[in-house]
Specification:
This protein has 207 residues and is of the alpha+beta class. It is 52% helix and 14% strand.
Length: 207
């Protein structure tokens, strides 16, 4: 399995502490390899050890949860972990990585300090941004009504249904619908584009 570990802060001191901790877990045969570190996402990509193959998801979650709590205390930062399904060879690496990212991104719904498994993500067919809303956004863009555009986008990001989603798919689809609508009218939307991007970035939605 692959595991993606994300923290919500990332000073040089925290990076050094994380590497020290990861080396310790390699010595304890919990982590087999630290593959990559992505500074932009405050993210470490790990290969869990073969020892974990013999453990159930519940046992792995208990193990990773204790590690996560330890990390959080040591680096004084919030932590989330996403775990892929079992890989059956190197050919499944890319899929496993995408799965682990999908799992860790559930923090956008559940908050930090969670261990999430890709296998537990459910299908969700909720529609957060309807055809009517897309049409309304398009009309306001054509009228250069920046206040109304901001209101429509803000209403989407503060929709209370987001907290009850079973997966991020409806949220991502809504963001894509907003961006595609504005990109079709890029000239009209130019002055409003920055505020739309800022709203997405403030919520840390990883597209």
């Amino acid at each position: 399995r692959l595991a993606v570990v994300q923290i919500n802060n990332n000073s040089e001191e925290q990076q050094k502490t994380m590497y020290d901790l990861l080396e310790k877990w390699q010595a304890l045969h919990v982590v087999q390899t630290v593959l990559w570190y992505f500074p932009a996402g405050h993210e470490w990509l790990l290969v869990l050890s073969d020892r974990c193959k013999a453990l159930s998801e519940k046992e792995i979650k208990i193990l990773l949860n204790s590690i996560m709590i330890y990390i959080s205390c040591r680096i004084r930062s919030q932590v989330s972990v996403g775990v892929s399904d079992i890989m059956r060879g190197k050919s499944e690496f890319i899929t496993a990585y995408k799965n682990a990212v999908d799992a860790v991104n559930l923090r956008l719904l559940r908050g930090w300090d969670e261990v999430c498994f890709y296998a537990n993500i459910e299908k969700d067919h909720t529609i957060l941004f309807t055809e009517g809303q897309k049409l309304g956004l398009k009309k306001e863009l054509q009228k250069y009504n920046s206040d109304r555009v901001d209101e429509i986008v803000h209403t989407f990001f503060t929709d209370k249904r987001i907290q009850n989603l079973k997966s991020l798919d409806p949220l991502y689809q809504g963001i894509i619908d907003i961006l595609s609508t504005t990109s079709m009218l890029r000239t009209e939307a130019e002055s409003m584009w920055g505020s739309i991007e800022n709203l997405a970035q403030e919520q840390s939605y990883d597209l």
